[in-house]
Amino acid sequence: MKNLVLQTLWLAVFSCILSNPTAAQHATAFDVEDGARAFADSCANCHGPDGDLIQGIDLGRGLFRRPLSDQDIADIIMNGIPNTPMPPTPRMSEEQALRIVAYLRSLAQRPESDVTGDPLRGRELFASQGECMDCHRVNGEGSRIGPDLSRIGLMRRAVEIEAALLDPTAEVQPANRFYTVTLADGETITGRLLNHSTYSIQMYTQEDGLRSFQKDALRSHGFTESPMPPADDKLNPQEIADVVSYLVSLKGEESPDER
Amino acid sequence: MKDNRRFAKPVTVVTLLLAASSAVAQVDFDRILNAQDEPENWLSYSGTVFNHRHSLLDQINTGNVGELRLDWIWQARSLEKFEATPLVVDGVLYTVEAPNNVVALDAATGRIYWTYDYEPSPDARTCCGRVNRGLAILGDTLYMGTIDAHLLAIDAKNGALVWRTKVTNAAEPYSITMAPVVVKDKVYVGTAGGDMGIRAFIAAFDAKTGEQVWKVHTIPGPGELGNDTWSGDSWRVGGAAVWNDGAYDPDTNLIFFGTGNPAPDWDGRSRLGDNLYSNCVLALDADTGRLAWYYQFTPHDELDYDSTQVPVLADIQWRGEPRKVMLWANRNGLMYVLDRVTGKFLHGKPYVELNWMDGFDAKGRPQRVPGMLPTPEGTLIRPHVHGATNWAPPSFSPSTGLFYVAHWENSSIIAVEGEFPRGAGDNPRQTAMGQVDLQPFLNDDDEAYGVIRAYDPDTLDPAWEYRMSDITWGGVLSTAGNLVFGGGREGYFLALDATTGELLWKASLGGQLNSGPMSYAVDGRQHIAVAAGTALFSFTLP
């Protein structure tokens, strides 16, 4: 297990070196390992072990509230952000802060599994045969009932996307869970849960968009299974690889044929 | 005198009007000791030295609380968690804008009298937010601990700094986040930073001069009783921090503080032994700091079960006999009744589902369940690392005789040796530390929910519960109007019937409740105040 971790770290560093010129000048396997330790000691209590506990920030996937250079992140680690809960870490040297950055960059730059598909063909399949846009939205087009996938390539690796396509109900992110309410007259309404509390429910429905319900006025309510069908109902393995390749390319930028 | 102090009658509106017209006087210690005689004021963190967080005001009661409305809001300039409970003295409300600015407001209108701005040293380092839980007052002087490990005395009339004492070295990294405690002519603080390898202590300072009078480490040094409960040199960096309010019993002159977890938090292999006095309540002579007794809630803790909850002192009929007890709902999922004179363990009982222990021995030592510790593979443990409850202050009502606690139910973690534990369940995000803004709540209702429960101290059985969908970091207040106020991470502030738990009123405050509510009166009107998000809210009847 330890060897596997070390191999992964080495691969991560290698990938980081290939794709990140700043890190290429500095990051070593020791830097990443030491950064991982320092992250666990100094950052994980608030940011969580995966760096994703604070809304809008996913350190392990390179998602910050604004684009940040390595030095920007190191400065924030050392100095904090005034008037926010992000505290300074005065005893942290710049060298150690940069090691944490190297660790975070290594997580965000994890090597992809073999992506053998054609992203352009995948885009066509996504919009047509796959019927994906009936629920999903990309760069302002498509439905809002499912998750917006415009940045999915930044948030998920190919292997994770492929697994989600083949078994959509196996692991559903909390923000993507579906919910069904039964009104007093027996009508049932299903949508993506956006929020709920002791007293009310807010969700997005395909038919009426944003809806809110008072819990005490409902006959019943609760989570329901994702309506997304497995991709292999409609697509063959090569077509699935094409769609995966397309989704991996979505990083909040223009789609492949528009570059 | 003694009985009057503890079982004083609710104060009527007529009394309030009289109090409102009384001359402004200094807050000498007799006033603090007899705070129940002037319920229009709130003179210490939990209202009295006994930490009942129970107001004897009854203008707002079960019959009219449904009409409660917002009177004013004061918005802090800080985006830190607002954990401070305000003080109110003769119509002036004092609170802390995190991390360490002090503000004096007109308690009737929320308008500012003065602000004292303090810029902590860049050396300051805190584990869990640059927070502060409040002030103490004595005479005309306010006292505040700072996150750069100083104790400040500030003139309550004009916000001028009276003195500033360095308690210890912020770079090591020590900090102070608790509201100081005042007893007679001394001010007491403890040091936070236990997760980061400090050796914590409690210290008493002369209230007039700021000179240190005594200092007691919460981890014994070589040659001191208990040092051998730490293997090797682990005692040097063992934590046992003190970061929440203490209590005082004038009959025994004992001051009580809870201590935090041993460090490193989730791996005890380098600190074999019971690790005294981590996770303890310490009873110290208020004049000398001499240890009178201690009780350790979680020996050799490897699950971060700080025992820094607010000690609640109550004089109750226990098993048919009058008894001076200490009530304690601990982070480790157990509720305790201790004899506060001797420290004797009287009763302990799980108040949430837990799996790390399965009983007590005759002296009240928990019997560990083998294997319920961090392991290389990971172990499912209840309650969660953030606990069944954490630091939020509870309440005891002498009227109902019930102990009110806001806590978490059904929470668990996966503990791995040496690593920060992972939340367990469908949505482990449920377990994030308290924050300021409202977060979308996407869990099942049954998963790690928040609950306010009323417990009978005689049996530790719940009398009622009020359940919230999300968890809570908020405290509770009980009042002579037979009400309990509380709330949680959803941002709702609630009024419940203190006898039945029935919901009588609620308001959505738009931010997480990370503080304990309190009550005061000015100009003959009772207010209920609570901080949520980054603002302080004050409610009255129309």
Task: Name the descriptors.
heterodimer, A: 259 residues, alpha+beta, 5-stranded antiparallel β-sheet, two-stranded antiparallel ribbon, flat, B: 542 residues, mainly beta, 5-stranded mixed β-sheet, 4-stranded antiparallel β-sheet, 3 helices, globular, disordered N terminus
Question: What this model shows, in words?
Answer:
- The complex is a heterodimer of chains A (259) and B (542).
- Chain A has 259 residues and is α+β, with helices and mostly antiparallel strands.
- Chain A is 38% helix and 15% strand.
- In chain A, helix 3 (29-42) crosses helix 6 (94-108).
- The radius of gyration of chain A is 21 Å and the shape is flat.
- By secondary structure, chain B is mainly β.
- Chain B is built from three helices and 38 strands.
- In chain B, strands 1-32-33-34-35 form a five-stranded mixed sheet, with no helix packed on it. Chain B has a four-stranded antiparallel sheet with strand order 2-38-37-36. A four-stranded antiparallel sheet of chain B has the order 3-4-5-6, with no helix packed on it.
- Chain A binds chain B through residues 40, 44-46, 48-49, 52-55, 79, 83-85, 87-91, 174-175, 177, 193-199, 223, and chain B through 77-81, 122-130, 171, 173, 195, 419-420, 422, 426-427, 429, 432-433, 435-436, 439-444, 467-470, 490, 492, 506.
Summary of the model, kept short:
The complex is a heterodimer of chains A (259) and B (542). Chain A contains ten helices and seven strands. With 259 residues, chain A is of the alpha+beta class.
What is the mean predicted local confidence, pLDDT of chain A?
Answer: 80
Determine the oligomeric state from the structure. Answer: heterodimer
Mean pLDDT of chain B, rounded to whole units?
93
Which word captures the global form of chain A?
flat
Annotation field: number of helices of chain B: 3
Q: Give me the Rg of chain B, rounded.
A: 21 Å
- Quick one: which chains have the greatest interface? A-B, 30 and 40 residues
**Measured on Cα atoms, how large is the radius of gyration of chain A?**
21 Å
Backbone structural class of chain B = mainly beta
> What share of the residues of chain A lie within helices?
25-40%
Q: pLDDT under 50 segments of chain A (min length 5)?
A: 1-25, 255-259
